[in-house]
């Protein structure tokens, strides 16, 4: 099962479960995660969703083998929701969303944090947005959400440099809310999730909507800009060479 789900005390924990691929998102995982968020949104027994990863990674981003296939394989079949469907589900998710970054996060494993209401990070984890090293554009409305969350210069460095950021840098930037020792990460994230989940869901949703609704037009516009640039740059010579390097195991 590529996405595990567990319910405890009105908290639904979703665990990305492709540890052999560092929880990289292929079309199946994009679909499963989008479907899980839509189901949690509609479930009256779920007050909070906690998202984490299995193994040593939170998520290594989009599966680059599939990204290459999207460019080169005329028979490539996209998923039902895919990347854009997941981002739509995230941006519209009406309940508190907490991320527990247990290991490395790359690409969507970082930009997903812009959609989180709270983010916890293991002290040994690290994060990277590899967009410029892959010759592509940013994603997941990160060009809009991250400057608001981190300030323009921190966001610019994160999105442009393709350099690793450690947990304490991420905390100073404001990308995550708390840094925990690895053995304490899920305990702390779940403890905070259960504090929220003890409150009326209707009230939690009202607060979430008051925070999120003003951002949604900006998220939609940023996603459209990013997707247009991404489509323009995907498959160019620079991108093709970078993908070949990464899929050969030399880029990470």
From TrEMBL:
One Pfam short name: ECH_1
UniProt cross-references to Gene3D superfamilies, sorted A to Z: 2-enoyl-CoA Hydratase, Chain A, domain 1 (3.90.226.10)
SUPFAM superfamilies referenced in this protein's UniProt entry, alphabetically: ClpP/crotonase
InterPro entries: ClpP/crotonase-like_dom_sf, ECH/Chromodomain_protein, Enoyl-CoA_hydra/iso
Record-linked CDD domains: crotonase-like
UniProt entry keywords in alphabetical sequence: Isomerase, Peroxisome
Any one GO molecular-function label of the UniProt entry: delta(3)-delta(2)-enoyl-CoA isomerase activity
Subcellular localization: Peroxisome
Sections of the chain in a coiled coil: none
PANTHER family the record matches: ENOYL-COA DELTA ISOMERASE 2, PTHR43684
Protein name: Enoyl-CoA hydratase
Upper lineage: Bacteria, Bacillati, Actinomycetota, Actinomycetes, Mycobacteriales
